[in-house]
Structures are given as C-alpha cells and as structure tokens.
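ENTRY TYPE: paired fold submission
RECORD: A
CONTENT: sequence, then structure tokens
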Amino acid sequence: MTLHAIEITLTRSVDTLELRAAQQESCLPLAAADDRRRLVVLVSAKNEGRAMRKIWKRLEDALPIDVLCSLFPGPDGKYLMSIPMSDETYKRIQAGASAEGKTPEEYLREAIVQALARDRSTRLAQLDCALNELVRTYSPGEITGAAARRITR
C-alpha cells in the first residue's frame, strides 16, 4: 500500500484536546497548521480515492471537516478533492450531467474550470481598471518609483 498525504480543511478551528481525541479515535497521524483549521494526514491506501474514503469514515464524526484535498497532483497534474454535499445537491449534479451526457465528475470538473475562468477574467478586468486609474492619476516615474520601493521592502 502507498502512503497518501491529504490536507483536511475544517469549518472552524479545533483545540488541542479535540485534535488529540480525533487522532486517537481514528488512529491516523494528524498534523495541524498554526490556525488549526487545516490539517495534514498520511493515509495508507491503494489509491487516493480510497485514502479519502478512509479519512471520511474515520474522522467525519470527530472533526468539522469541510474539504479534503490531495497535497500533491496526480500523474495527470490534477489534485483530487472530496467535498461533502447533500443528497439534493448530488441529485441536481446528476441531473445536469445526465442532460449533457457526462458523468457527474466530468460535469463538476467543467463547472469548476468555467468558474475559475470567470474569476480570472473578472480579476483581469479589475486589474485593467485599477491600472487605468493609476496611469490617469500618476506619472510613469511616480508609478515605477512606488513599485521599486515596494519590491525592496
């Protein structure tokens, strides 16, 4: 079996006692970030999917888990995420996927890619607006001077 490193994002911070109890109950080695909202766990399993199922099975009642995500990309360069969802949400995803002749995984993957593209587009538009305002307000020398000072901080 292979060891898989999985990041657990929690819905809230956990204290030391809660973390220790979850670790003892699950028999999984957990390491917490300083904010105690993110944990890393090493799980022995045949593949990442099984590793994530093992984590859900052992920790879903012990910790307020929001998302599980692989720490390293797979051979395809992508990260594996596991997000809990209600039956109603899953049924809507299945219906949308079925209508487009896709698997639920393909349907979600495309929806995420589209959302990221929209976000990137929005951020680029915001950056363009901010740069236009900057160029209208300040001289090129003032802008480059401010940028140089910021870099050397």
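RECORD: B
CONTENT: sequence, then structure tokens
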Amino acid sequence: MEEEQEKTLCAQLGVVDDSLFFLLLIIAATLLSFWSVSLQRKGLCLTIQGKTETAGQLPPIYPIRHKASAIIVGALGFFLCLALRTLEEAEEGGDCVAKRSARSNLWASLFVLLAAMLRYQDLDFVERCQASLEEEDTLPD
C-alpha cells in the first residue's frame, strides 16, 4: 500500500473511532434520559398510591436530565464540526453529488444541534423558574 494512501486511511480510521466514541456518549445520554423518565414515572406511581413521602425521597430528576442534555449538546457539536470538515473536503473536490450531500448533512447537523441547545436552555429555564417559585413558596398545590 502506498504511504500517502495509508496515511489517508489512518486519518479516516481516527475520524471513525472518534465518531464511535461520540455515538457512545449519545447512547449513554439517552440511557440517562431513560432513567430520569423512569424515576419520574416511579414518583407518579408512588404519589398515586398515596406514598408521597417515599416519592419525595427519589433522586431529583433535573441533575440527571441536565447531564444528559449537556452530553448530547457536546456530542452533536462534534458531529457539526465533522460535517463542516466534510463540506470543506467536498468543496475541494469536483464531485457535485458529494458537495450537495455535504451541504445537506451540514444543515441537518446544525438543526439537530440547535434543537438540542434549545432543549438544554429550556431545561435550565424551567428549573430556575421552578426553584424560584419554591423559594417564594408560590407553587400551586
């Protein structure tokens, strides 16, 4: 194998390894989200059964959701950077199909990252408002 070709393949292998790592992070964040929803469900079931004290002893959901969202935003940031790099490489070549695909993937990566950032920001906003209402003791019964 030619030295230049091997160098290119090794670089591609590094990108694939990084992609696998960030996909694993997304899977871990999804599992954290699953756990937070299952805790929320358990709390609701306990409350319905009249076991509000036990429900109140469950771990708080916000920190779990916050960590999961932060992991997702970080991982999606990597994929946006990868899409930018792919577009740059496609623009250097003459393949119009590769250019079109790279542009589409860049927009998709950007929109997915923006959606995750909006959800993260909303999660923080809701938590701050909730904490503020609890401090003022103005939560509805």
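NOTES ON RECORD B: Residues 3-48 form the longest helix (46 residues). The radius of gyration is 22 Å.
STATUS: closed
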